[in-house]
Specification:
The protein is about 15% helix and about 45% strand. With about 425 residues, the chain is of the alpha+beta class. The chain has three domains: about 150 residues, Beta-Lactamase (2-Layer Sandwich), CATH 3.30.450.60; about 140 residues, Mu homology domain, subdomain B (Immunoglobulin-like), CATH 2.60.40.1170; about 110 residues, Immunoglobulin-like, CATH 2.60.40. Strands 11-13-9-8-23-21-16-19-18 form a nine-stranded mixed sheet, with no helix packed on it. The chain has a five-stranded antiparallel sheet with strand order 2-1-5-4-3, sandwiched between helices.
Length: about 425
């Protein structure tokens, strides 16, 4: 990456804190930064990269600060921006709010962090959990230069040594969100599943975990049945996962961080039928009243139940005198959102329910041709995944040989779930 210097400026361009890492650029070069900002703003163009002669400024604007890196080398600019955002994340972990006042109040710790973030222009440690092992909120100065903690020199930088629990447990949640757009005629226009595997790890020592999924590529390579296999797309892993092992034999092998983290995320483009189908009939009567008949149908297996279902039906902004009738749940009018919310605590699979709403329309309504906003649905279905992904095993290996309990849950919930009305 090779950044020569990093500056934190206020919105007027005054330097609050700076750190010169390489000494190959005069620190006075930062004086050219604000004139360049003013110039691009007057031209109406915005660029996160600015140049003055041989010097490149890469910057982000955060709160009331400019955070700027300077370089003269052929640097990896994407890595510089990742570094700047990681810097902000670390400051946030220390100070909660990253702004001019918090930088001024904590300048000693900011300097200590800048020293640890980078060495001779190359990023080193930006993980807040690692930094907090040896730069504490209270310590304004390190009296004795301590030995760096094992997490800095260790290959497993995300997990410190010496963790102990009386009861060793692992909680694993497979959470899938459904993004769906359905036309007024009931045709699925867009359908996507966005999934993530979230973990809460409370294990002693330095354990190695191995996770097995019903992965289609693995099943094909080993000649097993493909009927229940899932083809995952756009898979992203936490840094703890050994990518070479996954690429070789599809094994998800890792030494986990302590506590909560997202192990992996994935995406599936699928054209499955909507889990919650909403049919609507909306009748307007000569600008005097409007009537809604909403039918909600659950299109998943009877043994599953959707919890905390909310069906959000848009209504005209001048509607009044609401009247409701429903076979289940509760209905309320939310005028500040121009919507009716039909709430159902538990919605069993394979069922359908009706709700009728009646509103008066006292004023002359705008033309209907402008189009109506879609109906939105919120829900959560436990013990169920729409993709069919399954955790086949979760092995925990630790040299002391202790027994650990793995707990696995499956949850399907709404993402951007919209159904257009006629």
């Amino acid at each position: 990456m090779s950044a020569s210097a990093v500056f934190i400026l206020d919105l007027k361009g005054k330097v609050l804190i700076s750190r010169n890492y390489r000494g190959d650029i005069a620190m006075s070069e930062i004086d050219h930064f604000m004139p360049l900002i003013t110039e691009v703003e007057e031209e109406g163009t915005v660029s996160p990269i600015l140049r003055h002669e041989k010097t490149t400024f890469a910057y982000i604007k955060y709160s009331n600060l400019y955070i700027v890196a300077m370089t003269r080398t052929n640097a990896n600019i994407a890595l510089i921006f990742v570094y700047l955002y990681r810097m902000v994340q670390a400051f946030t972990d220390y100070f909660k709010e990253v702004e001019e006042e918090s930088i001024r109040d904590n300048f000693v710790i900011v300097y200590e962090l800048l020293d640890e973030f980078m060495d001779f222009g190359y990023p080193q440690t930006t993980d807040p959990k690692v930094l907090q092992e040896f730069i504490t909120q209270d310590a304004h100065k390190m009296e004795v230069a301590p030995r760096p903690p094992p997490t800095v020199t260790n290959a497993v930088s995300w997990r410190p040594e010496g963790i102990k629990y009386r009861k060793n447990e692992v909680f694993l949640d497979v959470v899938e969100s459904i993004n769906l757009l359905v036309s007024a005629k009931g045709n699925v226009l867009q359908s996507e599943i966005v999934g993530s595997v979230k973990m809460k790890v409370m294990l002693s020592g330095m354990p190695e975990l191995r996770l097995g999924l019903n992965d289609k590529i693995l099943f094909e390579s080993t000649g097993r049945s493909k009927s229940k296999a899932v083809e995952l797309e756009d898979v992203k892993f936490h840094q703890c996962v050994r990518l070479s092992r996954f690429e070789n034999d599809r094994t998800i092998s890792f030494v986990p961080p302590d506590g909560e983290f997202e192990l992996m995320s994935y995406r599936l483009n699928t054209q499955s039928k909507p889990l919650m189908l909403i049919e609507s009939v909306i009748e307007r009567h000569s600008h005097s009243r409007v009537e809604y008949m909403i039918k909600a149908k659950s299109q998943f297996k009877r043994r599953s139940t959707a919890n905390n279902v909310e069906i959000i039906i848009p209504v005209p902004p001048d509607a009044d005198s609401p009247k409701f009738k429903t076979t289940i749940g509760a209905v309320k009018y939310v005028p500040e959102e121009n919507a009716v919310i039909w709430s159902i605590k538990q919605f069993p699979g394979g069922k359908d329910f009706l709700m009728r709403a009646h509103f008066g329309l006292p004023s002359v309504e705008a033309e209907e041709d402008e189009g109506r906003p879609p109906i939105k649905v919120k829900f959560e279905i436990p013990y169920f995944t729409v993709s069919g992904i399954q955790v086949r095993y979760l092995k925990i290996i630790e040299k002391s040989g202790y027994q650990a309990l793995p707990w696995v849950r499956y949850i399907t919930q709404n993402g951007d779930y919209q159904l257009r009305t006629s």
